[in-house]
Amino acid sequence: MIKHILKIIWNQRRSNVWIFMELLLVVAIFWVMMDSLFVDICTYKTPLGFDITNVYKVNFGKISPDVPGYVPDELHQTSDGEDVIRLADNLRQNPEVENACLAIAACPYSWNTSWVNLIQAEADTTQKADVFQRLQVEPAYYDVFRITDQEGHPLRPIVEQHTGDLVITADLERDFWNGQSGIGRQVKWNSSSTESITVAAVSTPLRRTEYDKSRPCFYVLWRSDKDIIETVEWAQAQNLECFIRMKDGFRSEDMEALLQQMSDRLTVNNLYVSSITPLQEMRTSFLKPRTDNLTKKSVLIGFMLLNVFLGIVGTFWLRTQYRQGEFGLRAALGASRSKLKQFMNVEGLCLLSFTVPLVLIFIVNMLYFDMPDTYRQPYSLWRFLVTFGGTCLLLAGMIWVGIWFPAQKIAKMDPAESLHYE
Amino acid sequence: MFKQYLKQALQMLKENRLTSVISILGTALSIAMILVVVLQFQIRLVGFRPESNRDRMLYILGIRADSQTDPNNRNSTAMSDGVVKECLYPLQTPESVTAMAKDRSIVSLPNRRLFEEYVICYTDPGFWKVFDFHFLSGKPFTEADFSSGLPRAVITNTLARKLFGSEEPVGKEIEMGYVSYAVTGVVKEPSRAAGSAYSDVWVPYTSNTNYVNNQSCGGVCGNFQAVILAHSSGDFDAIRAEIKQAVARYNAGGRDFVLGINYIFSRVDVALGSNDMNGGIQVGWLEYLTQKVPLLLFLLLVPTLNLTGVIQSSVQKRRSEMGLRKAFGATKGRLLTQVLCENLITTMIGGIIGIILSVVLLHLCKSFLLSREMVITFEMLFKPALFAAALFFTLLLNLLSAGLPAIRIAREQIVDALKDNDNS
């Protein structure tokens, strides 16, 4: 039967060539889209390394000296560092708040990051110094963001059991010690520095956003209030990040009321809580360009599917009209209706399958020039099967639906009537 | 003759309902998708209130400040108030000039502390001349308010409703960073599409000490961007030249840092994606088109192939008719025109539906094409450019899809056509 159909397709080449070219173009672009969607979705699904549900970012403000209400230096005994710690304590003491923490450059979904050199202390001096992302945090940060070690145990108790001022992520551990445990090992800021720092714990890999691959990074721990006060001396207090985790069941609509209620506790000398943003909201706006891109790709896929549908319906509908005689003859010679339908379906699918070799050449070329995203997701047979198979299946489905309409018409045809045309 | 084609085309549309619907739908869909791309650009380009005079505006989005002594100390940032005062305010050629810096801040009431952040625009009285805001009540802060740095604010009607309910806000006070500002006027909230004018609150920048006498990099760097309104777009070159002179004069003052205003963009530059932050880049039509044309081509090509297939099939059916007409003396050109004209009817209907569909699509897809909060008005969409683009792409689509089948049928031998012989 296939040979027969091939002959028919060849004879219809004039009208087939257009639908074939459309399919060719669509299959190629479809595959590109599917591949990039596949990488996006796979990356999206892997664990982030932290949990932001019910976490809010607290922004601080500082009253400027020319404003009434400013507490002049001679009137207050505490430093800005102590004030900011007290503000965080005030927040933590609220019964609705599960925990609060202070940090610098540690806010997820923000552009505010800090990068510094870090090397292993025991390595020889020739080791190339790499730059890694540095997050400065209080141990409570691990409770607020529910960060765990690689076995899934909460990280904070582990940090507190061990000495050392640094927590590294599993990626950094692998980079430095290649599979060996990093706990208790020494690192330095650079090869010329004499001071070395102990690694207290290793956390799960950390990803900046759902769309990024995890990268090696590390946390500098503020073990005591003294560390925070020292930091505030060079970084302004209002630039410190503060995060609070609310108890389960707390609704973000109630935040305003909660703040109103503890209004007087939200100012300590010249520092005050200026606003509170749910991290969920920051996430949405931070990811918007990436999410929008994903949606646009899906819309284009929809556009292509719809076009293939229209193209197939159009071409095959007209074809059935002037091939009525042929189908009538087939019916008269004993072809059942389902057989006729099947006949058309195979014809459509044959057209699709002809594109496969050409598209495979295209894919090989794309891979040769490393056009698909192989950084976030290595290219594998599995990835090829899912994306290319998905492409073919979806298009085949669309062709099948497109042929259904004209086929319906054929099936209703009376053989005698169609033969009449001959 | 064309009337005859029209009749024939309409007759064919009726006769072959399904294929007509498919052709029209395919065209409409393709035109709509293309127009959505065009509309996105149009919203960035054309004027609408309060940025009605975009065609007369020039933009200084950033500056360079390079140290005289340290070659590594080079900055690409925004202007200080000093630069604005010395280089921009004295300009003679423009109609008006404004400098603005935006920040986010909490807006509270004197008796009640609130915790929601709003966009605050620190600007000058020139702002109200460059942009034509619709004042619902009150008036802008004045030149006198500005020069004495009085805390005065203009707010949007949305914010006014949130803070004061139905009460009249003019004369009342709002608090920002522990400073009380008297509300002088309420404006209709501008659409977020008006990127320069958009804000929730506008105050004289002199009222906030952070924005006056900026000393970073020798008093050159600051937070301000500027918009200049020319009398006509013909003055652009004169204004650019005048700014160049002003910058030269400013630099003659012998500061530690050299000021450089490298780019003064027109609205077209801005719409194409030019920017002057972190180095600055001027995007021309060529760069913009190389980026967009593949998408447009794709949106055009897929339906074209579709339509060609359908048209090819339907023309095939009419071969004997064409052969007959040729036998009676119809020229190639005439048959070609006929096929093209007939199809133009289909594509035109598709094009018109496409225009409507594009507006619907833009509204439906607003959240990921633009932003959910952006208000799209009639004024932004229905500009001549939209219809010109629709006509252009419709004609192009028609020519591409019907061209080949038409040429083919017109060139066919009479005998073959009449015999319905498929061997040519």
From TrEMBL, chain A:
It is a multi-pass membrane protein. It is found in: Cell membrane. The chain crosses the membrane at residues 16-34, 299-318, 349-369, 381-405. The keyword Transmembrane helix applies. It holds the Pfam family FtsX. Keywords: Cell membrane, Membrane, Transmembrane, Transmembrane helix. GO terms for molecular function: transmembrane transporter activity. Belongs to the ABC-4 integral membrane protein family. One of its GO terms (cellular component) is plasma membrane. Residues 299-415 form the ABC3 transporter permease C-terminal domain. Signal peptide: none annotated. This is ABC transporter permease. It comes from Parabacteroides acidifaciens.
From TrEMBL, chain B:
The keyword Hydrolase does not apply. It is found in: Cell membrane. One of its GO terms (cellular component) is plasma membrane. Keywords: Cell membrane, Membrane, Transmembrane, Transmembrane helix. The keyword Nucleotide-binding does not apply. InterPro entries: ABC3_permease_C, MacB_PCD, Macrolide_Exporter_MacB. GO terms for molecular function: transmembrane transporter activity. Residues 296-413 form the ABC3 transporter permease C-terminal domain. Residues 20-245 form the MacB-like periplasmic core domain. The chain crosses the membrane at residues 21-43, 295-315, 335-364, 384-404. Pfam families: FtsX, MacB_PCD. It is a multi-pass membrane protein. This is ABC transporter permease. The lineage of its organism: Bacteria, Pseudomonadati, Bacteroidota, Bacteroidia, Bacteroidales.
